[in-house]
Specification:
- With 227 residues, this protein is an alpha/beta fold.
- It is 51% helix and 12% strand.
- It has helices at residues 24-35, 49-59, 75-85, 99-109, 121-132, 140-150, 166-176, 181-188, 192-206, 211-224; strands spanning 2-3, 15-20, 40-46, 63-66, 91-95, 113-116.
- The longest helix has 15 residues, at 192-206.
């Protein structure tokens, strides 16, 4: 956990943002962008879910800006934990990964918004301010997609990976990164047997024959997501 941006006496109150991202360069860039705003400040940074939860407890931010892809537990699992432990702290998910797949999962987990890192800086700032104002933020494209799904448009459906639960999705991503069952169990603080059960369910849902086919499919899927 890195604490930054302490408030100086006599300065206007600024919303305190905690940045959670496992890439130092990304954290630095976001901190610079946010720190230049008269109404926003960065109170701290964290590189993983464990440090993020400790930082929230210590720093009491007004908003958590979290990436989906983190070491160990991902941003979706982190969002669930924040909602359970710090229900008054809103989460805005910021990611390189496809919003058509991850935005709905993030919102279901309790996030108040999802914005792509590729968006212009003013769009990211708009998202932060809207979430701080109590609104939910997703792109216009994502709003249209959600409305189509609500209206029963089958063309708006997703891939077979949509069938996976959030925990299975986390395991699936780690498999795609080449992690062993033991490494996944260690990172997610699960038993090896539990991870093996998740792997079996994933293979069944995706109609995959064996571990090699699962690893190949997961790796290809991550590549298509830009990870």
């Amino acid at each position: 956990m890195v604490e930054t941006g302490k408030k100086k006496k006599g300065t206007p109150e600024r919303a305190r943002i905690l940045i959670v991202d496992d890439h130092p360069v990304v954290r630095q860039g976001l901190a610079l962008l946010i720190g230049q705003q008269p109404d926003l400040s960065v109170c701290g940074e964290a590189e993983d879910a464990f440090r993020a939860l400790s930082a929230i407890e210590a720093l009491k931010p007004d908003l958590v800006l979290a990436d989906v892809s983190l070491k160990g537990a991902d941003g979706i699992e982190l969002t669930k934990d924040i909602k359970a432990r710090f229900p008054s702290v809103p989460v805005l998910v910021l990611s390189m990964l496809d919003e058509s797949f991850y935005a709905e999962r993030a919102l279901r987990a309790g996030a108040k918004g999802y914005v792509m890192k590729q968006e212009a800086t003013d769009k990211i700032l708009t998202a932060i301010r809207r979430v701080l104002g109590g609104e939910v933020f997703v792109s216009d494209k994502m709003v249209s997609r959600m409305l189509q799904k609500m209206a029963g448009d089958s063309a708006a459906g997703g891939s077979p990976v949509d069938l996976l639960s959030d925990r299975e999705m986390t395991v699936f991503q780690l498999i795609g990164r080449g992690y062993s069952t033991a490494r996944i169990a260690e990172d997610l603080h699960l038993s090896v047997k539990t991870v093996e059960t998740h792997r079996a369910h994933i293979k069944e849902k995706l109609n995959l024959a064996d571990a090699a086919e699962l690893s190949g499919y997961a790796g290809q899927w991550l590549s298509r997501q830009g990870e």
